[in-house]
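G.,

No rush on this.
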Amino acid sequence: MGEWGFLSSLLDKVQSHSTVIGKVWLTVLFIFRIMILGAGAEKVWGDEQSNMICNTKQPGCKNVCYDHAFPISHIRFWVLQIIFVSTPTLIYLGHVLHVIHKENKMREHMNTHSRSEIAKVPKYTDEQGHVQIKGDLLGNYMTSIIFRMLLEIGFIVGQYYLYGFIMDPRVVCSRAPCPFTVECYMSRPTEKTIFIIFMLVVSCISVVLNIMEIFYLACLRSARRKQKKNLSTAIALHPRSNGGSLIK
């Protein structure tokens, strides 16, 4: 699990800048993917090629049959999936950290200059450093969700075309240097099938959470626009209250 430490620490920072659904998605990623992959799946697939038995002793035949059945091992495929699916979220984190740094500089400038000299004020963060997901940040956040959802679906489809969703205990191969059509048998196919289905279910849950979060953010954006519109209408109808209770 040590090799996942850096990625986990970065994703942990995203939690404080995500919605409730986004935090659930990160929890699913941590517990049901990274931890399960490190704790159990690597041990199940550790004997994948060495324990494959073929009905021939021809040198090199077992290697080409294994390569034919598994162009990329399930473990490496899932590792790539985690990295690719996490990348849009990490790009969003980079944007958030840039905004925080920029607005902290603004606050330092505000503390050392008079109000007449201040051109811009912090828009996304408050005095405590809490980030509000709105404007460009909201657009970046929604884009990251859409991309990670598309990547998730792409990996599900890719897994289906590469090996399917059930581990077949028998591999039939007729590639050179095999002298004839060879049959090879995998170790622990049932246990591996359980892991494959489990990871598939987690991927589907991730897609559903992404769809839910997109709808949530769309509703949030619509509500904010409606609130601004109502406020503008109220100010237009009561111009004398422009600096009064309506703005508050």
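When you get to it, here's the other one too:
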Amino acid sequence: MRNFLFLPFFLFFSFAVQAALNVPIPAHKPMTDTPLTSVKKREEEIKTRTAPPPAASFQISETEKPLNKKDAELYREIYRLQHVGKFNQARTLISKIDNTILMGHIHAQRLFHTKSNATDKDFRDWLDTYSDHPQSIKIAKKIKNKSAASYKNRVTGTMGELRYFANGSKYLSSKYSAQQRRAVNNVRREIRESLHRGSATAALHYFNKHGVQRYIDPVDKSQILSSIASVYLYLNHPEKARMTALKALKASKETPIPGWILGLTAWINKDFKSATKYFTLASKAPYASPWMTSAASYWGARSATRAKLFKEVSPLLATAVKYQRTFYGLIATKALGYGYDFNWTMPAYTPKMQNVLQQHPAGARAVALAEINQLTMAESELFALPVKNNNALQEAALSLAQHYNLAGYSMRFSSIIPNPAGGFYDAGLFPISSWTKEQKNSDIPLLNAFIRQESRFISTAKNPTGATGLMQVMPETAAFITEDSTYKTKAGRSQLQNPRINVNIGANYLKHLMSLEAVNNDLFGLAIAYNAGPGKLGRWKREIKERDPLLFIELIPSSETRSFVERVATNYWVYQMRSGNDPHTLTAIASGDWPRLD
């Protein structure tokens, strides 16, 4: 779901909205004095710039590894034995280990085994020695007696300094008293609940009559009215949406949603001149995210083309192209025949990098865990590293994650750590799960596109609805695809956290969806069906009846699904480019066609 930080009403919103020109852009003055390169030359440039980097040619010698060959083999066998509950045999091997760096992990595995009879004392003893390990939070919660609080306060095996990096800021008015702020928040909550029920008119009446009107901040007022206007639009009341959005725009021009809603309603009414005006206004709103800026800019260019305002097309497209890692940025770049600026280089994992990591306890354990293929726990250890303001450690952690394909860490880490060469580490932002490579008859970029959006490559991810694992597979879906009802049981659901099982079921479910008539082998239809179900896809197609593929997406009455489609498509196109393949569905949508996968 989109994370539009300053706007609290997200349920029905389309913060990073999907759209594209439904006809090729007519000839117009280039954005710069440099003439456009030929399409053929641009295609070659794209292939060159987006090709994956060559694999590192070096290997770390046995003497440089943190575990000698004997200990590494012992740890692997101990993990295997404990996994099947053979604790006595495991203890015999433990006594033979020289390097005890991973004993905390070994003991934690045993404590959490279903056959374990661990007591409070066992958990306390573990925390006395291993409180800096990633399992410490979970183990502290197991302590039930009166000393539990003191143990929980000692836990240090957490996200480390990585969690302190700023994720952006949101609008927060400073004009309210404490009492007024509570009142405004209560109004937001009441309106959000009304909108959740689809009661836009009731929400509007409630807001108009409420006492907060005497002192509410203009931006807050604009946000609330925008949320109501959005619901009107998605409930197919474009005129009510337009009138409410005009009130929101009058309250404040600092938020993009009023202009966005007004642009869409003008487009629906074929008033392309007004649509150009409002989309342009939305693209320049101070609180617009890059996704919204590129979306509004591209729709503005689209509207200007229809209105024959050709002088306004190039500046709007130029703005969209600035954000090449967004849905609209990719489409704008493709429409103009420009190359992409992805940088797939990554720091190589060398003995020097390993030495940097081993200066920190968590880093040393991560290196050892990765060596014996305990990659999930290695990733957890990396999260605890004190990487803030430590460029050497940042580079070393990223190199280890890339070398061992720790995709979850690579993605999160690369989103906040800049590449010294400029920009970010795109190969880390778009990692390739090793589990997808086992799916020989599947579209690997497509699988990674879904995983990136569904779980951010965290194999243990769970949703309150029951969706589990890398591809957020529902137990009912797993039972249907595998014809095995045990996936509906507690034991079966736990199996969905196994990456190999999860990806295999998810891949087969995608194949099933693609065979359905409602999906019609269409990228957008596939994403909608995966997120909301094939039933809703069929219903929305009947209700909306929109031939323009991306306007169809915009009118879907679910912000989560609209966002899901956009993000999955963006991921898919980038993964195709990373693999050196032509993103033909991107070409199709930039030309106004449905993005068919065949």
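The two ends are 27 Å apart (CA to CA). The mean pLDDT is 86.

Enjoy the weekend,
O.
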